[in-house]
Amino acid sequence: MDDIQLDALRETCNIGLGHVSTALATMTGKKIDMAVPRASFLPLEDAVYIGGEPEKEVSCINLPITGDIPGLVIFMFDAPSTFMLIDMITGLSEGTTGELDEMSRSIIRETGNILAGSFISAIGNLTSLKMYAEVPELAFDMLGATLSSVLIEYNYTDDKLLLIETIIGEFDRQIKGFFFFMTSPENLEKLFKALLF
């Protein structure tokens, strides 16, 4: 994977996030900015240290992808960012949410669905590849346990993960999330070839 391919991916993600911003603005009635500061490949053993220690609690939204590039999309936020995101989406004062009830889980699940759907839509528009998101699943647990169980469940055997850092912002509030895309090396090659032509 070279810098040109990663730049193409980053630009694709930024285009997708433009759609996400519009969707979230419609949902919340306020302007929400998004950006992709970094896209990279991460060794699998380092993934459990994203944003902190493996024992750190995170919310993890898993969306299986079917179509021309089958795989799994994962959105991950640490616990404070998860609660801040819920407050931002619902219009509550920052610090109001401190735990995940059923309504909060539904909000995070739907937000992850919108995020992933917009990324997939952007890739499809730029490449003519057909990709479809299935029903999202939400887990809230320790980072190491959550990521390990996902990798086992989906039989992911590659030694690297495609990591896309995502910043969601409203006024002076910024929330950092992590977007993983898991697919086979052959499918990644197909994706990057399509992005560059």
Which structural traits does this protein have?
globular, 7 strands, 197 residues, 7-stranded antiparallel sheet, 6 helices, alpha+beta, Chemotaxis protein chec
What this model shows, in words?
The chain has 6 helices and 7 strands; from the N terminus they run αβαββααββαββα. The chain is α+β, with helices and mostly antiparallel strands and 197 residues long. The protein has a single domain (3-195), classed as CheC-like (Chemotaxis protein chec). The model has no long low-confidence stretch (mean pLDDT 83).
Q: Could you say which overall geometry the principal axes of the C-alpha atoms support?
A: globular
CATH class: Alpha Beta
Poorly predicted runs = none
CATH topology: Chemotaxis protein chec
Largest sheet: 7 strands, antiparallel
As a whole number of angstroms, the C-alpha radius of gyration is 16 Å
**Overall pLDDT:** 83
Can you name the CATH architecture? 3-Layer(aba) Sandwich
Task: Give the SSE order as H and E letters.
Answer: HEHEEHHEEHEEH
Instruction: Give the termini separation.
Output: 16 Å
The CATH superfamily appears as: CheC-like
Structural class by helix and strand composition: alpha+beta
- β-strand percent reads 25-35%
Number of domains: 1
Overview in brief:
With 197 residues, the chain is an alpha+beta fold. The protein has one domain (3-195): Chemotaxis protein chec (3-Layer(aba) Sandwich). It has helices spanning 3-28, 44-47, 79-90, 102-127, 143-153, 185-195; strands spanning 33-43, 57-67, 71-78, 131-133, 137-142, 160-170, 173-182.
